[in-house]
Structures are given as structure tokens and as C-alpha cells.
Amino acid sequence: MTPEDFRTHGAAMIDWVADYMERVDELPIMPAVEPGEIYAHLPDSAPEHAEPFAAILADLDRVVMPGIVHWQSPGWFAFFPANHSAPAILGEIAAAGLAQQGMNWATSPACTEVEMRVLDWLVDLMGLPEGWKTTGAGGGVIQMSASDATHVALVVARERARARGASVDDQVVYTSEQANSSVEKGARIAGFRHVRLVVTDEQHAMAAGAFDRAVAEDVAAGRVPAAVVTTIGTTATTAVDPIASIADLARPRNMWHHVDAAYAGTAMLCEEFRHHQAGIDRVDSYVFNPHKWMFTNFDCSVFWVADRRPLIDTMSIVPPYLRNEASEAGAVIDYRDWHVPLGRRFRALKLWFVLRSYGISGIRDRIREHVRLTHELAARLAADPRFVVAAPVLFSLVCFRHDDGDDATDALAQALNAGREVAVTATTVDGIRVIRVAVGQTYTEQRHVDRLWTLISDLAW
């Protein structure tokens, strides 16, 4: 493909994506395909000879689109959002075209330094501790996902406890019973045998007293409390653990305290939500995902540490072929020492594009609008005797159930999803079935939430 061909085909590809963005609201959200159907549309072997790009582009519609779940539909209220935006897509194109390998500063100074600066901006924008900037003792790094960041934090916690003489077999990780499953998975992969799921209070947040008792029990049994993971915005209900209270208990015991704000971290751009992260100045690490609610394509997960030295000490291995003058002098950051992979993409470009294209005021406006729409929907549900709002509405998620019980709730969720105009998620909270509605898709407006409410009201009995 010549540069001229690339211009022609690139323009066609941009047109295709722009057309998709214009019509995604009209597409059925969930695909009507059977397992193996897409696979069967593909030939048994790869093509021996080059095919025209027009044929490849045509197969996006013929083969791929029938099996696409339209996460970018404004009727997407399932799980949490996984958003794109036009600026992020353009940043992704630039990153793909430059194809940087940013494993250390010397292999791409721009890849490193743009990331440093953009993540330092976010420290200020989200009201995080000043020391978390790369100009301080800490710093931020873009990971693939919150799962990766949590795993890294737990590996650092493990090594710090080992340095104090604690066997891995004796170390314990604590998290809420409402925490994302990635916490337990990360702990298991990191080699922890003991993972304690701490009970929650009536707000579905980790109970500080129960955490204190669990730690005391483990200490009495000869085990070593190594880490605690608290959550700002749990997956099921967006509950917020008491960060300050847990920090007060964890710090004297020299436990690593990691905060998972994967979804709700974006809300911290707005001052009115920052009370949820009170005590954040006393934690060791923090993660949030711009690829959820900040209109930045997956993957883009920001991980900060209050002190980068334990992270680098744990992750750094320097073979001769990676040595260079700038690194040896300690004058630069080498991000390969901040996570598990050696290789890394120029992910900061798309985040930089989004922050500059929307402006912080533009992002804040969208967040506040999503929250407003959510509270409006919650009020409609609460006013209808058929429904019960099942958890506090803190951000842009509302959980509700049918007053007739679990079967009626599940039947309503299935009916909503069957129409393929909207998508919601059903789950279990405290043994009761609920429907989660996450309002946060890039293109969701008042009319889309109104449509959802009409469907809920019409399909319930």
C-alpha cells in the first residue's frame, strides 16, 4: 500500500467510522448471532495473495458488524461504559501511525514525557495529592486496565512485606465483599494464599470495624496483613468504601493501601464528588479508567503511586541492551519499570487529545449531565410503586428491582434486553436480584433515558 493508496483508503475508513457514529443509535445493540456464526463466515485459511482494500472494508459490514455488541450506542446502560470519542479515535490513529515502543525514555522521549505531563495535569484536576506528580516522590503511569494496576499494586505489597521477613504463604490481602473480582484474581496471581472478603454495611461499603476485626484475627493466627484494597464506586452499586477510616487502621500496621476508582474516578474531576475520596492522602496507590467514563478509547487506565521507589524496586530488571546514559544518570523515567510488560504503546496521545478537544469544562459538563439524568431516572423509579431503588445513587448508576421479587426483576431485565433498543445488566446484591442502569455513554442524552424509562414502564406489570 503506497502512501497515496493509504490516503485514499484511510479516507474511506474514516468515512466508515463516521457513518457508524452517526447511525449507531439506530442499530440493534445486541447481535442476533449464534455461537460460531462469525467464525464460519471466515475462510479456513489465510489469503495467499493480496486482496483489494475495498473487499476488506466491505467485509467489515458483511462479516464483522453482525457480531458486534454496540457499546457505543447511546442506549447502552449495561455494565459500565467503555466509551470512544472522535478526539480519542484520532489520537489512536496518530499513536498507531507513529508506532512508538516506549519501554524507556531513550526509546521514545515524547511517549514518556507527554504521559508524565498529562498524568500530572490529572493530579490537579482530580484533587489528588501534589506528591503524586512525577515532580514529587510518586507519579502516574498508564496501564492496560484497572485489573493490571491492582495486580501490580499487590505484587509491590507482597515484596514490601517479604522485605520485612514475611513469607508469602502467611501474607493476607483484604478487600470488600463488593469489590471487583479483579482484586481477588490479582491477589491469587500475585501468589497470595489468603484473601479476606470483608463484610459490608447497609450502604454496601466495607465496614471499617469488620476490617479491623479481620486483621486482628489474622495477626492472632500468626498471619501478616500485607495489603488492603478499597473501592470508590463498586461494580454492583457504586458504593464507596470509607477510605480515611481504613487508612487509619492500615497505616499503623504498615499495610499497602490501594484504591480502585476504576469507574468513579472520572467523577473526581468535579469538586462536588471529591468528598468520596477523603483520606486519599494516606493511601499508597490509586487507579481509575479514562476508558470508562472519560471518553477515551480502551485501553487507558491511570495508576498512581504515592512513592514510586517501592514500585520501581519491585519491577526493575535492567539487561545490558536497555542501559543508556539518561537512565543510568537517573535523569528520566523509564516506564517499563512501572508495570509488568516491557513494551508499551503511546496511549497518552489519545488522552491528551481528549483533554484538549473537550476541555476540562466540557468533560465536567458531560459528567454532570449523566449524573443529572441518573438521578432523574431514580426519582421516576422511586415514585412508581412497582419499583424499588435498591442502593444509594452516588454517581451515574441506579440499581432497582421489581417490587414483585426476583423473578419479576429478571423477567423485566430480559424483556428490556430482548428489544435490543437498550442494554442493561442484572445482578445480585445482598441476595436480591436487581437491574443496574449505568448512564455514561458518550452520546447518551435526555431522549435516550426517556426512551429507557418508557420501556421500563411499559414492560413491567
Description of the structure:
The protein is of the alpha/beta class and 461 residues long. It has 15 helices and 11 strands. Strand 2 (171-176), helix 7 (181-189) and strand 3 form a beta-alpha-beta unit. Helix 5 (109-125) runs parallel beside helix 13.
Topology:
Layout (H helix, E strand, L loop, with lengths): L2 H21 L13 H5 L11 H12 L21 H13 L10 H17 L13 E5 L2 H18 L7 E6 L4 H9 L4 E5 L9 H13 L3 E8 L11 H8 L5 E5 L24 E4 L1 H4 L7 E5 L2 H8 L9 H4 L19 H36 L3 E3 L7 E6 L3 H13 L6 E5 L2 E7 L7 H14 L2
Parallel strand pairs: 2-3, 2-4, 4-5, 5-6
Antiparallel strand pairs: 1-7, 6-7, 8-9, 9-11, 10-11
The pLDDT mean sits at 94
| Cα radius of gyration in angstroms | 23 Å
| Ends distance | 59 Å
Biggest beta sheet attributes: 7 strands, mixed
In terms of quaternary structure, the protein is single chain
**Helices and strands: which structural class?**
alpha/beta
Total tally of structural domains: 3
Q: How many helical elements? A: 15
Summarize the structure in short:
The protein has 461 residues and is an alpha/beta fold. It has 15 helices and 11 strands. Strand 2, helix 7 (181-189) and strand 3 (194-198) form a beta-alpha-beta unit.
